[in-house]
Design brief:
- It is a single chain.
- This protein is an alpha/beta fold.
- The chain has three domains: about 5-20 and about 240-420, Enolpyruvate transferase domain (UDP-n-acetylglucosamine1-carboxyvinyl-transferase, Chain), CATH 3.65.10.10; about 25-240, Enolpyruvate transferase domain (UDP-n-acetylglucosamine1-carboxyvinyl-transferase, Chain, Alpha-beta prism), CATH 3.65.10; about 430-645, 3-Layer(aba) Sandwich (Rossmann fold).
- The chain contains 22 helices and 33 strands.
- The strands form nine sheets. A five-stranded parallel beta sheet has the order 26-30-25-31-32, sandwiched between helices. Strands 2-15-17-16 form a four-stranded mixed beta sheet, with helices on one face. A four-stranded mixed beta sheet has the order 4-5-3-14.
- Strand 10, helix 6 (about 175-180) and strand 11 form a beta-alpha-beta unit.
- The longest helix is centred in the C-terminal third of the chain and has 18 residues, at about 530-550.
- The two termini are about 40 Å apart.
- The relative contact order is 0.10.
Length: about 650
């Protein structure tokens, strides 16, 4: 049975320097070149993860000596000084696409009999274009299972090379594997790419690494590569931080409005996924860059349309970010990721929907239609796909109750992912200069009043119901026969009356605790709450109360956005419309359930569209869906968030 990891939301913006591991793509390319090189190479800042472990094991099976040094920070690789020459070797590429697609051409240029297999998800991934290309060069390859898939048996006797045409519409890894084997072909290789090349930057990455190890490559025209039969020479190669892995940390800054830096990366990197920061910049984030660092500072997130054909490994990251955008985000050019570890478009759409995000799929991408009010807790399946686990974990930064099933799958490329993400948690230290307010906002029927009151008792701090203030003004208007739409008259009355909010609510010394919860007040309070003059009067009283009380729990509809935007903890309580209607229906029998639901929808529209302080989810607010939680569970969760995130 697969285990789950329940993640705790961030209360504050993500901040810090993320310790991102070395690039998987660069590490595995450097390992292949070093393993086939003449002499001993050193690979610094390499990634040690399942994918690179698979490559190291494969090379060791071929006779390459690989030894870790400097407490695991570098690898010493004694190369074969040419193609492998062994017999009856079995290689298990595990789940690593790069290992399998780089090793097959590497053994095809050698001598001996080799069997390349992997775990079930890898065995389903297609190898057709690489098999066809190698056979055209004279390689003897037999599929031992399904056609065009692993396991493959390669009966190798070297390759002369020549000219080949490779379809690169499904994966650039096929071309990269052939290119890296080319210096060991007797006559070298001229490779022509056909079709719309996907993930083109990865081919540039391959050429860069090959040249570091002495390969000679010409690129006379776009899509054509001429590789000389030079073999490889040993080198000292330093691996950049993984831009794909860094995308999750940059996304954390964008989602939480934080500031996250990754050292060792710059915009000049040849890693294609470095372009992800350009997307974040287009969405509203600020990107700071130097020769040796990249930093993302979050801002409000807009929508847009983005072609991720050249950096598709960040498509799931962007889809997770899109859940917090203010407008739809369309991701296109990624149809080929349906054949990755899983159908990544289908998987992402399914799991985002599980968390309340509407996604429209197409053959070439997806459109994410964000609605933060609908975000909810969920158990998220990962499909043995490390990128599913890492991208969906980003929702937990703002949404409570996100549980990642089989979190260990991140070991494929980023074993310390959760620790690095957690290192960006910014714990607040509240001093005497700061009023520690817990701000609870949300729509009607989400449980704000009850939960806020019990949370205050749970924490032993004061409670203040701001909604009761607006209800008190509304009741006073109704008693005085005032039209609640008369802005000036209502404001004059609000200024004049004395409202006391505590365990009971009083207006001018008269207890109105029960009366303010009546149907007529409920039907008119939105108009009063939308009155900008009234809000100005009452917000000042609310702030004064919090300061005089030394902090506490304050609930309403604009506490985290307008009254206390710097609150210690900002919570947005929500629930489905049906659940909220049932709760309100249970409070009174004077209306039908249908009427109550209609009233709640109208209230949501009024509250969210009013000009002054509309109901919004505050920046950094933790979204808590109470639909399937008891009051006690929600109170315990909020208490835990306050205690664990804030040191007082």
């Amino acid at each position: 049975m697969k285990t789950g990891r329940l993640l705790t939301p961030f209360v504050s913006p993500a901040r810090g320097v993320a310790d991102v591991p070395g690039s998987k793509s660069l590490t595995n390319r450097a390992l292949i070149c070093a393993g086939l090189a003449d002499g001993t190479s050193v690979i610094e800042n390499f990634l040690m993860a399942d994918d690179t472990g698979a490559m190291i094991a494969a090379l060791q099976n071929l006779g390459v000596s690989v030894i870790a040094h400097e407490n695991g920070r570098s690898l010493q690789v004694a190369g074969l000084s040419g193609p492998p020459d062994v017999s009856n070797v079995s290689i298990n590429a595990r789940l690593s696409g790069t290992t399998s697609r780089f090793i097959v051409p590497a053994v095809a240029v050698g001598r001996g009999k080799f069997t390349i297999s992997g775990e079930a998800p890898l065995m389903r991934r297609p190898f057709h274009d690489q098999i066809v290309a190698l056979r055209s060069l004279g390689a003897n390859i037999t599929e031992l299972g399904a056609v065009d898939c692993l396991p493959l048996e390669v009966d190798a006797n070297g390759l002369d090379g020549g000219t080949i045409y490779v379809n690169a519409e499904k994966s650039s890894q096929f071309a990269s594997g052939l290119l890296m084997a080319a210096p060991l072909m007797k006559n070298g290789l001229t490779l022509h790419l056909e079709g719309a090349v996907v993930s083109r930057p990865y081919i540039a990455l391959t050429l860069e690494v090959m040249r570091k190890f002495g390969a000679e490559i010409l690129n006379p025209v776009d899509g054509t590569y001429v590789v000389s039969p030079t073999g490889y020479q040993s080198a000292i190669y330093r691996v950049e931080p993984d831009a794909s892995a860094a995308s999750y940390m940059f996304a954390a800054a964008a989602i939480t409005g934080g500031r996250v830096r990754v050292n060792g990366l710059s915009r000049s990197s040849k890693q294609g996924d470095i372009k992800f920061v350009d997307v974040l910049e287009d969405l509203g984030a600020t990107v700071n860059s130097g020769d040796t660092f990249l930093e993302v500072v979050g801002g409000s997130l807009s929508g847009g349309k983005f072609d991720l054909n050249d950096f598709s490994d960040t498509a799931q990251t962007l889809a997770a970010v899109a859940a917090f955008a203010s407008a739809p985000i369309e991701i296109e050019g990624i149809g080929f990721i349906k054949a990755k570890e899983t159908d990544r478009i289908e998987a992402m759409a399914t799991e985002l929907a599980r968390c309340g995000v509407a996604v429209h799929q197409s053959q070439n991408g997806m459109v994410i239609n964000p609605n933060q009010w609908a975000l909810r807790s969920a158990q998220v399946e990962t499909y043995d796909d490390h990128r599913m686990a890492m991208s969906m974990s980003l929702l937990s930064l703002r949404v409570s109750g996100i549980e990642i099933i089989d979190p260990e799958c991140v070991d494929k490329t980023f074993p310390k992912f959760f620790e690095v993400l957690e290192s960006l948690r910014d714990t607040k230290d509240f001093s005497s200069e700061t009023t520690p307010v817990i701000a609870i906002d949300g729509p009607a029927g989400a449980g704000k009043s009850t939960i806020a009151k019990l949370l205050a008792e749970h924490l032993g701090v004061p409670h203040f119901d701001t909604g009761a203030m607006y209800r008190a003004v509304t009741l006073a208007c109704l008693d005085a026969g005032l039209d609640v739409g008369n802005i000036e008259a209502v404001a004059l009355l609000a200024e004049k009356i004395e409202i006391t909010v505590g365990s009971r609510v009083q207006v001018d010394g008269v207890d109105v605790s029960e009366r303010i919860r009546g149907i007529e007040v409920g039907q008119n309070v939105s108009a009063v709450a939308a009155n900008s003059l009234v809000r100005k009067i009452l917000v000042e009283r609310q702030r004064r109360w919090a300061i005089e009380a030394g902090g506490g729990v304050m609930e309403g509809r604009d506490i985290g956005t307008a009254v206390f935007p710097d609150a210690a903890l900002k919570i947005f309580l929500t629930a489905t419309v049906d659940v909220r209607a049932k709760r309100r229906f249970g409070e009174s029998s004077d209306q039908s359930l249908g009427q109550v639901k209609k009233e709640i929808l109208a209230r949501d529209e009024t509250d969210s569209s009013r000009q002054d302080s509309p109901l919004r989810i505050a920046a950094n607010a933790v979204i808590v869906d109470t639909s399937n939680s008891t009051i006690a569970e929600t109170v315990e969760l909020l208490g835990m968030l306050f205690r664990s995130e804030v040191s007082q």
